[in-house]
Amino acid sequence: MSLLSRPNRAVLVAGTIGLALVATACGSPEAKPSAGGSSSTSPECAAFSQYGKHEGKTVSIYSPIRDAEADLFEQAWKPFAQCTGIKITYEGTGEFEAQIQVRADGGNPPDIAFFPQPGLLERFAKAGKLKPASEEVKKLTAEGWSADWAKYATVDGTFYGAPLGASVKSFVWYSPKMFTEKGWAVPKTWDELMTLSTTIAGTGIKPWCAGIESGDATGWPATDWIEDILLREIGPEGYDDWVAHKLPFNDPKVVAAVDKVGAILKNDKFVNGGYGPVKSIASTAFQEGGVPITQGKCALHRQASFYANFWPEGTKVAEDGDVFAFYLPGNDPAKKPVLGAGEFVAAFADRPEVQTVQAYLASAEFPTARMKLGTYVTARKGVDPANAQNPIDKLSMEMLQDPSTIFRFDGSDLMPAAVGAGTFWKGMTDWINGKDTKTVLDYIDASWPKS
Amino acid sequence: MDFDFAAELPKLVQLLIGVAAFLVVVAVILVLVDRAPMRRRAWTHATILLLPALLLLTIGLVIPAVRTTLLSFMSGDGKQWVGMDNYGWMFTQPEAVTVLRNTLIWVLLVPLLVTAIGLVYAVLVDRTRFESLAKSLVFLPMAISFVGAGIIWRFVYAYRAEEQDQIGLLNQLVVAVGGEPQQWLQEPPLNTLFLIVVMVWIQAGFATVVLSAAIKGIPAEIVEAAKLDGATPLQMFFRVTLPSIRSAIVVVMVTQSIGTLKLFDIVRTMTGGQFDTSVIANEMYNQAFRYGETGKGAALAVFLFVLVTPIVIYQIRQRREALR
Fold it and tell me: Which of A1, A13, A19 should one mutate to test binding to chain B, selecting the residue with the greatest count of B CBs within 10 A?
């Protein structure tokens, strides 16, 4: 006995074949001329002639940069894309660290990723997922960045990609107007800074405000604080040792540095201007951390140069404006180490068009084009700081391009992700929320991957 | 964003190929079944029909489960064998122990609270005039996703400094009666309870509906007989209602236990596992995907599986007994 009667089977087979035919008929899409194809011969394109023609090719970019900043990126490379014919598909994500892993493991990596953490880049390089940078990119990086920067994207002697944007973290934001009114002076040493804080606290407002809430990454602004002070307390070499875990996380020197930060961040007399007691730091979004300065409820806010983007609309960022920033002073005013961060452009593919995009991003033209559109900082030499959109960007660029500057990368971005994007952030959040320094540092030290 | 049909063409083609391939597979299976000789015990037919499902289960469930188990005995990068280290970490490291403790609190409290609230509510509104309205109201939160509920409740718990206007409902109430605003989500171990409230809020409706249906299923004769015998309302509840709906209660408890063990969204949305509120699923995600510690993540996943298994077995047994 047959389960299917004859006529039914015939219909089914015919139907299946028919569908298959439809599928194959659609399966031959005609080559479509790219949108930029026609304009690629125009005079504006002369500048991009060195990159050649890659008609109809697509390069995908995956990055933690989103929204308005991402739009500016796309706007900045639009002429390049039109002239070379490369279609750049850009995708920004708020969960870069987790999603890039999922995509790479799932066999669906982007062509290019902007890594904000050299530690993460290293993990992918060691896993053999990244392609080494081309000779062209290597050459551009050598001429454009200091050796420090190139070092951060070099894993086991192989160079993986040029830096992109940069930020200077060693800034304290303040209100020049408020300072002039009250007769306060910008401090030049740590002691002056603490004296100033006490003075301000005496006038009835809490001198410092801070916010470390940042979704998955909650805690990072506090780690920046620690790094900045460590860099001043134990010097650049000591800092390198600490980042490489040659100096344990719970070493007395580190404990001392963290307590030095605690003298501000865990002092109910000094924080949290405009938001409440110490614990409110943990629940205040980092974007809003400094805003009370504009309301006169707080006087000082330590945050990177990019905080210029987060002031309420209409706030004038200038030395004589509503807000400005001074260098976070150390004990010795003669030494001015700079803590900073940035992204690196690494590729999961080595197709010619991918390498062309990498080369363009490593050139001086891209950051120049990007800076003209909006606030942006790069450490690349040959980019004129005069193009900067605000005085803080200009100051940052000058600091980064100055050959005598001792630059150190944000340590949490260099450490293994388990610490740098995990227990360090979490530990500092717990620290703000009331745990004592030693307990927190012991916990972070114990979480360092053993290998 | 303009929709470029031509640019999407490859995806549509893939889609069509996928549908076509599916139909081909179905067709092949049916033809095979049709051709196979029919015996009294249809082993061949069963095999042919089960094969695709088994194949998919193997690819989607068995292989990943085995791989996860293997990974749990390996180092973070999956290169070295580390034996029981990851499990040792889980039970000794204070932060990891906190995670286990939290999960235990969740699993103990949520099913109990959800069932108790659902049951009391179902009994109270049973056969009243506004029953359907009351049930819809308590069932409404079920329609909200865990993430949505998490965001709503984050606002309920929101904190503003004393001198500012409160935007959180709870703190506004506290201030209204003259108290000081609190940072509810930052006070361990109380904050875990505040998160549990959210889960109970969502799930109580489910319990109400299931238990209410069960109560209505109690034969009227039993109820009448009990009433004739002069049972008080309390006696009715404990001697008649409760034993009669035992299986429904078990269903609610079991589904809630499993759901709570796997709980991830609420914790992640509301605290991100900070302030000692993390639970196993959240920590597993953090370890495996954010920290690149696949070994530890896998160990947590295996442990979670081990915890869920007895509950599932218990439920299967219950169902078998019920069928008998």
Answer: A19
* Nearest-angstrom CA–CA distance, A76 and A114: 16
- Residue in B with minimal Cα distance to A435: B275
C-alpha–C-alpha distance, residues A89 and A81, integer Å: 10
* Domain CATH code at residue A292: 3.40.190.10
Q: Is B63's pLDDT higher than 90?
A: yes
Q: How confident is the model over A211-220, as pLDDT tens digits?
A: 998 877 888 8
User: For residues B169 and B155, is the Cβ–Cβ distance under 8 A?
Assistant: yes
Do residues A213 and A332 share a domain?
Answer: yes
Assess whether A96 and A107 both reside in one domain: yes
- Quote the number of domains for chain A: 2
Verify that A189 and A231 share a domain, yes or no: yes
Please tell me if residue B25 touches chain A, with a CB cutoff of 8 Å.
no
The CATH H-level superfamily of B85-323 is: MetI-like (1.10.3720.10)
Q: Min CA distance, B109 vs chain A (Å)?
A: 25
Q: Could you tell me the sign of the dihedral formed by the alpha carbons of A112, A115, A119, A120, in that order?
A: negative
A276 plus A329 within the same structural domain: yes
DSSP symbols for B61-100: IIHHHHHHHHHTTB-TTS-SB-TTHHHHHHHHSHHHHHHH
A75 belongs to a structural domain: yes
| Cβ separation A274–B161 shorter than 8 A | yes
Structural domain spans, chain B = 5-71, 85-323
* Subunit contact B13:A276, Cβ cutoff 8 A: no
pLDDT value, residue A149: 86
Asked whether residue A37 is assigned to any structural domain, the reply reads no
What end-to-end distance do the CA atoms of chain B give, in Å? 60
Same domain, A248 and A366: no
Q: Which of B17, B289, B293, B294 should one mutate to test binding to chain A, selecting the residue with the greatest count of A CBs within 10 A? A: B289
Q: Which residue from B minimizes the CA distance to A5?
A: B34
Tell me the per-residue pLDDT of A16-48, one tens digit each, with 9 for 90 and over.
444 444 444 443 333 333 444 444 456 778 888
Q: Is residue A356 domain-resident?
A: yes
Cβ contact, residue pair A280, B161, below 8 Å: yes
Same domain, residue pair A128 and A266 = no
Nearest to B292 among A101, A276, A426 (CB): A101
Distance from the Cα of A301 to chain B's closest Cα (Å) equals 18
Decide if A17 contacts A56 (C-beta within 8 A).
no
CB B22 within 8 A of CB B52: no
CA B89 remoteness from chain centre = 26
Structure ipTM: 0.77
This prediction's pTM: 0.78
Alpha carbon A320 to its chain centroid, in Å, reads: 28
Residue A68 is part of which domain span?
A: 42-161+340-405
Nearest to B12 among A16, A26, A446 (CB): A26
A154 three-state secondary structure: strand
C-alpha–C-alpha distance, residues A157 and A144, integer Å: 19
Chain B residues with CB inside 8 Å of A275's CB?
Answer: 161
